[in-house]
Structures are given as structure tokens and as C-alpha cells.
Design a protein that fits this description.
heterodimer; A: mainly alpha; 3-stranded mixed beta sheet; 3 strands; B: ABC transporter involved in vitamin B12 uptake, BtuC; 13 helices
């Protein structure tokens, strides 16, 4: 029996100016590869990322947006998001490389020639399977842990973020079976493309992005994934489920008293966050063609979390901006700044080496000065400043 | 996306820290006891297999565990008062190790001395590390946590993570990203041998430093006015304030005490393992936090006990021969243990049931 829906809250994106701004940003991102290759001067290209770097920036933005489901909407601090990145990356490796060459040759829409040993599914299918599997992993991890509150949950997710890379690292000898190649990681992972059969049927679609075109196609694929993630975020946020998340974030006990099923709602946020983490992980792996356990450290989790905090916890536009900004700083800005600094002052400081010092300072400053982030969500800002207003009226809450 | 309103069972469930509704608690208890029995069987089987190896590995476990115990108490003191996981604590520990290196090894040249001179140098190193880390931890509280005391609970936690990165990377700025290492400082001669394998003096010396430290901490917390003020603040901050206790100073004292213990822990780590690096505190800090949870967070005796248990687990896992997963799985095991405790017994071994403040 469906209950009558409450009218949705008016959102900032519904003003014409904001819509125009979003459309303009999207168009700029869409034509960025052409601008980069045709019109930019060398001084500018030193500061702007090339298309493959821009791909990585967008793929990490997808992760930031995925984590926003968990941290931003449901208010669950997840410090082990890298586990989902790792899961997506390795699923992609399993399903699109010669890792399981013993299994014979399974080529289904893959971007390799028929008869190549190993499993080679269509990369689009690989991304989808990786995302779904990672979402299931999120449910499996979530069921025992999401009953825990706040900081305990943070520590347990951090634990999973360490266990899964260690499992991958030790996975070359699981009772004698080599699943993951251990610390060597996997190489020779297929690239994106539509496979020969589709290519012969529809000539407009390339068989393999890498052979036939250039990194622009990867960039557009990542951009498409960003758009899908943003649209999903907005639709889910304004749905019944999204309101349940926000209710839990604001007050778990009150939400439970109002009849929000806590476990199911939390687990769904975790699974949806994991879905996009897995998709981004698979996409990054398909582009890089390789993956190794060293890529999955706590630092990645913190990096993605910083995107959410910097942009504005719970605001999808803020997180998108924070993601693009921070990933840009990490993959291009710091190198460019370091080069400029060194050439100006004649020094030899390796600035990118201290990136995590900079992120640490940024996290602390943001939490102290502007906890609502660059583009705050109106509700979240109200929550964060609620206590400050109450402070003068009532004594601080008892800790006993 | 239409999620239906919760069923009667879900809505009537008392939202509390108790993890499992009553119906399932018995099944969970049975699983927990089975797991414990399995571990006990594994230990007994190993002990029978090679009793000498088992004894030696146990003694090593006590030495490693005492370092975890020192760090774990810092977590538990802060959590007991602020309900905050002080993520930066592990990195305060790293600073302790690095300051010891600077003072005792670089500055005073400990490796060139022996006897009384070495003892004096090490004592200076220990005091410097403890004082520095106490000051550092208090500074972190003053700068990063005090303003957020009334903020939503996740805000100080996220700040703590940020501080952790700041502190560890500051070590990298000062000391670089590589290991600093020293000559062995403690005498490593055999105190006695078990089955042909030596138990070195250094392991005993570590215990001679850590155990009295732990005992004197207990005395400070239980017997002194400062300790009493701290315990009162942990119990009820408002009531403590009404009784005339300066709550800010009591909290600063808890951070200082925890920092000093972490500094001593860092000192012990450096002279025992003879090396240190900027990310040292990450692993040790997480192990120590697990120890604090294992013992019952907020409970000082529990944290010490948990530290020794983690020390045993680490050494049994890497040192025993019969079906041990081996050192490459240690971190996974410790984290799985952490998850199991939180699921089966969130109040730990000695802790009281936790508050439901969210």
C-alpha cells in the first residue's frame, strides 16, 4: 500500500541560474578534450590535466559521489571505502584478463581476439558486474557492522579497508590457489571497447578504444559515469529512501521511532555507495590495464573522504566540485605548483610528496572553520550549527 | 524507491547499543563460545606440539604487548572522557620514537656509550620523549578538539583523522620518508635459554620500563587529586563542573597523561626495535585501539590487559608452527578480532555497558 507522498523540499538546483551553471559546466567538461588538444597554449597546458589525467580525476569524483551516499546522506562515517575500489578493480581484472588462463578461453564481447586464453567479457558488462558484486560485498560487510554507532563503525570500516588489500596481497596462495597474483598484481587487463562483433555490426562503435581512438573515449566514459552518479544521487535523495537516510543522519533514535527501518536503510546506503565505488574501481583498472595491492591504502579512503568534506557533506554538487578540485590538485595541481615553485625559487622541493600533509591540514581547517564544506547543503548546515545556537540556552549534554 | 514502514518488530526494538535483539542473543553467544573454543584448542594443540617454542613465543608476546598496553591507555583515557577516538594518538607515539632518536642517538650519541653513561642518556631520552608527547597531545586537544566539543560527534572524529595525517607527515618533513635506525642499544645477551633459543636481556628491560610505568599510572589515576578530577569528569562532565572541577584542565590532563605514555611507548619501541618511520604509528595505533576496545574502552586496566592480549595474538600468529596463518595475516587477524568483539561483546572484557549517546 503506497502512502501519499509529501511534496519534495525545494532544492537549490531548481533555480534557473543554478540550472544554467550546471549545464554550462557540463558542456565545458564535454568539450574539454578538444579545447585541451587544439586551443590551449603551453603555459596553460602546464596547469591543466591532459585527457588521461582528466579521466582519473572524473573517476575519483565518481568515488567521492559514491561515498557521499554513505557519509553525506546516511551520516555513516566510512573509512574503508578503498575496499570497494579494490573489489571493483580486481573483479575487472578477473573478468577481463588472462588471469584464469587455465579456464580456457571465454570471450564474450571482449575487446580481444577470439581464442585468447582467460576470461574476457565485454568491458561494459565487466563494469556492471563489478559494481553489482561490490554492492553485494557492501551488504555482506554492512550487515554485521552497521548496527554499530558512529565512531565504532568508522573503526570497523577502516578495518575492512585494511583486510581486503591484505587479502589481495596474500591472495596468491589461498590453500595453494593463486587468485590475485599477490603483490605483483594483475597486468594485461583489457581496455574499454565494444568488441569485434559489435564493431562489425555497427561500424560507428570502435572494437577497442585504445587501438582505434585515443584517451578521449575513456574521458567521456568517465564523464558519463559522473552524470549517472549525480542523477542517481538526486533521484535517490528526493525519494522516500533518501528522506529516510537524512532522518537517520539527523537523529537515529527519532528515525527509528518514526518507523524508519534502520538496518535496511543503512545497508542500502552502504550498498549503493559500494556500487559506484566498484564501478569507478573497474573503470580505472580497465583504463590502466593493471592493478596491484599497493594502490589500496587508507590514504585513498581518506582522499575520497576529503572530497566529501571539502565539497559539502550531503550536497551532490558540492561533492562533485570537491571531487574534481581535490583530484585535480592530487593528479595535476600539486605537480604544476611544485614545478612552478621550484623553477621560480630555484629550489628542489618535492611538493606532491607532502600531499597528505596538505590534505590533513585542509581536513582540520575545514572541520574547525567551515564544517559544512564549500557548497553546503542547507539542511546539513542547520544540523551542524544547531548545537551552537542551543549552547547558550542549555548546558552541554551529559556524557555519562 | 518505496521502502515500507518498518515492521512491528523493528520499530519496537529498543534502539540501544546492545547489538542484537534478545531472540538472537543466544545463538550469537553460542557462535562466540564456539569461536573461543576453537582458538583455545588451537593454542593447546600448539602448546602440546612444542611446549618450549610456545613458552618463548609467550614471553615475546608479553614484551610486545606492553608497548601496545602503553599506547592503548592513551586511547582509553581520552575515550573515557570525550567519547572520541583520538586517531592522532598513534602518531603521537611515532613522535615519541623519533624524539628518542633525535635526543638519545643523534644528539647524545647513545650508541658510543655503555654502562652508567648509556643508562643516563637513555633516561634523558625517555624523559624528553614523554614530555614532548605530553605537550604535543595537549596541543592537539587545544587546537583541534576543544572547539568541537559540542559539535556533532563525527566532526571531532574527522578532525582527529586529519590531525593524524598532519602529525605523521610532519615527521616525514623533519626526518624524511625512510627509516631512521640505530645500533642495538640494549644488551641482547641471553638471560636464559629455552630449548636452545635465547630470551634476551633487552626483552626483560622493556618489561622493567613498562610495567612500573603502568603501575604508577594506576596510582596517579586512582590516588591523586588530578586523577580523581579526571575520573569525575569522565563520569559526568556537568556534575564535575558543578563540584568545582576545572573540566578543561582535567581533559587536558588526560591528554597529557596519555601523551606521556605514548611517548614512553615510542621510546621503548625505538630502543627495542632500533628503527622508526613516519607511518609507524598507524599500525601500532590501530593495534592499540583494538586492545583498548578488547579490554573495554574507558577502562584503564582493561586497556592494559587488551594490550598484552594483542601482543600474544601477534606473536602466536607469527611464531607458532602448527597451523598459524603467519605474519602476513597479522593485521587481518587483529581487525577480524576487533570486528568480532564489537559484534559479540561491544563493552569488551572488563568494560561496563556503553552509553547510548549518539
Amino acid at each position: 500500500m503506497r502512502r501519499p507522498r509529501l511534496p519534495a523540499l525545494p532544492a537549490a538546483t531548481r533555480t534557473p541560474l543554478a540550472r544554467l551553471l550546471v549545464a554550462a559546466c557540463f558542456c565545458a567538461l564535454l568539450i574539454y578534450p578538444w579545447i585541451y588538444s587544439k586551443y590551449l597554449t603551453t603555459t596553460l597546458t602546464q596547469w591543466l590535466p591532459d585527457t588521461s589525467t582528466a579521466f582519473v580525476i572524473l573517476a575519483f569524483t565518481v568515488m567521492g559521489l559514491g561515498l557521499n551516499f554513505v557519509v553525506g546522506y546516511a551520516g555513516l562515517l566510512d573509512l574503508g571505502y578503498v575496499a570497494f575500489f579494490a573489489a571493483g578493480a580486481y573483479i575487472a581484472g578477473f573478468l577481463a584478463s588472462e588471469q584464469f588462463a587455465n579456464a580456457g578461453s571465454v570471450v564474450f564481447g571482449g575487446t580481444v581476439l577470439p581464442g585468447t586464453p582467460g576470461i574476457h567479457l565485454s568491458p561494459w558488462l565487466v563494469i556492471l558486474i563489478a559494481a553489482i558484486f561490490t554492492a553485494l560485498l557492501g551488504i555482506v560487510i554492512g550487515i554485521p557492522t552497521l548496527r554499530l554507532r558512529g565512531d565504532y563503525l568508522a573503526i570497523v570500516t577502516l578495518g575492512f579497508g585494511e583486510i581486503i588489500p591484505q587479502f589481495v596481497r596474500n591472495g596468491d596462495n589461498l590453500g595453494g590457489f593463486n587468485l590475485t597474483n599477490g603483490s605483483f598484481g594483475m597486468n594485461g587487463i583489457d581496455g574499454l571497447g565494444f568488441g569485434n562483433r559489435v564493431h562489425h555490426a555497427i561500424h560507428a562503435l570502435p572494437a577497442n578504444f585504445l587501438n582505434e581512438l585515443d584517451s578521449r573515449w575513456y574521458y567521456w566514459t568517465a564523464l558519463a559515469l559522473v552524470v549517472v552518479t549525480i542523477v542517481s544521487s538526486i533521484l535517490l535523495r528526493d525519494s522516500r529512501l533518501g528522506r529516510a537516510w537524512i532522518a537517520i543522519r539527523e537523529d537515529e533514535d527519532a528515525a527509528a521511532a518514526m518507523g524508519v527501518p534502520l538496518m535496511r536503510t543503512k545497508t542500502l546506503s552502504y550498498a549503493i555507495g559500494a556500487f559506484f565505488g566498484g564501478a569507478a574501481g573497474a573503470l580505472i583498472t580497465l583504463q590502466a590495464g593493471a592493478t596491484s595491492p599497493d594502490a589500496f591504502s587508507l590514504q585513498v579512503s581518506i582522499f575520497v573522504l576529503s572530497m566529501v568534506i571539502l565539497g559539502g557533506i550531503g550536497n551532490v554538487w558540492g561533492v562533485a566540485l570537491g571531487g574534481i578540485l581535490l583530484a585535480y590538485v592530487n593528479y595535476k595541481g600539486l605537480f604544476a605548483a611544485g614545478n612552478t615553485f621550484n623553477s621560480t625559487f630555484g629550489t628542489n622541493v618535492d611538493i606532491p610528496e607532502y600531499s597528505y600533509l596538505i590534505y590533513g591540514v585542509a581536513i582540520v581547517l575545514f572541520m574547525l572553520v567551515r564544517p559544512e564544506g564549500l557548497i553546503p547543503s542547507a539542511r546539513r548546515r542547520a544540523e551542524l550549527h544547531e548545537e551552537e545556537e542551543e549552547e547558550n540556552l542549555v548546558p552541554e549534554s551529559s556524557t555519562a | 524507491m518505496g521502502t515500507s514502514v518498518g515492521t512491528a518488530a523493528e520499530t519496537s526494538r529498543r534502539p540501544s547499543f546492545a547489538l542484537v535483539p534478545r531472540l538472537r542473543s543466544r545463538a550469537v553467544a553460542v557462535v562466540g563460545i564456539l569461536l573461543l573454543a576453537l582458538v583455545a584448542f588451537w593454542l593447546v594443540e600448539n602448546a602440546v606440539h612444542d611446549i618450549r617454542q610456545f613458552a618463548l613465543v609467550s614471553l615475546n608476546g608479553i614484551t610486545n604487548g606492553s608497548i601496545y598496553a602503553l599506547v592503548a591507555i592513551g586511547y582509553t583515557l581520552v575515550y573515557g572522557i570525550l567519547e572520541l577516538i583520538n586517531f592522532a594518538h598513534g602518531d603521537v607515539f611515532s613522535w615519541g620514537a623519533m624524539i628518542t632518536y633525535s635526543v638519545a642517538i643523534s644528539w647524545l650519541g647513545a650508541s658510543g656509550h655503555s654502562g652508567i653513561a648509556l643508562f643516563g642518556i637513555l633516561a634523558v631520552g625517555l624523559v624528553c620523549a614523554a614530555l614532548f608527547c605530553a605537550t604535543l597531545n595537549m596541543a592537539v586537544e587545544r587546537v583541534a578538539y576543544r572547539r568541537l566539543r559540542n559539535a556533532p560527534r563525527l566532526a571531532p572524529l574527522i578532525t582527529a583523522i586529519g590531525m593524524s595525517f598532519v602529525l605523521s607527515n610532519l615527521i616525514a618533513v623533519v626526518y624524511g620518508f625512510n627509516y631512521v635506525s640505530s645500533e642495538p642499544l640494549l644488551p641482547r645477551g641471553a638471560l636464559f635459554t629455552i630449548g636452545g633459543q635465547a630470551y634476551g636481556w633487552d626483552k626483560l628491560i622493556v618489561l622493567l620500563i613498562t610495567v612500573p610505568t603502568l603501575v604508577s599510572l594506576m596510582i596517579v589515576v586512582k590516588r591523586t587529586r588530578w586523577g580523581k578530577a579526571m575520573r569525575a569528569t569522565a563520569q559526568n562532565r556537568d556534575a564535575a563542573r558543578l563540584m568545582g572541577i576545572d573540566v578543561d584542565r582535567a581533559i587536558a590532563f588526560a591528554f597529557g597523561l596519555g601523551g606521556a605514555l605514548a611517548g614512553i611507548g615510542g621510546f621503548v619501541y625505538l630502543v627495542y626495535f632500533t628503527q622508526g618511520r613516519f607511518d609507524l604509528g598507524f599500525r601500532i595505533g590501530l593495534f592499540a585501539f583494538t586492545a583498548a576496545v578488547l579490554g573495554g574502552i574507558g577502562n584503564i586496566l582493561g586497556a592494559a590487559l587488551g594490550g598484552y592480549l594483542i601482543g600474544f595474538i601477534e606473536n602466536y600468529n607469527s611464531g607458532l608452527t602448527w597451523h598459524a596463518p603467519g605474519p602476513s595475516w597479522t593485521e587481518s587477524l587483529v581487525f577480524i578480532l576487533l570486528i568480532l568483539i564489537l559484534v559479540f561483546r561491544p563493552h569488551g572484557l572488563l568494560g561496563e555497558s556503553l552509553s547510548t549517546r549518539s
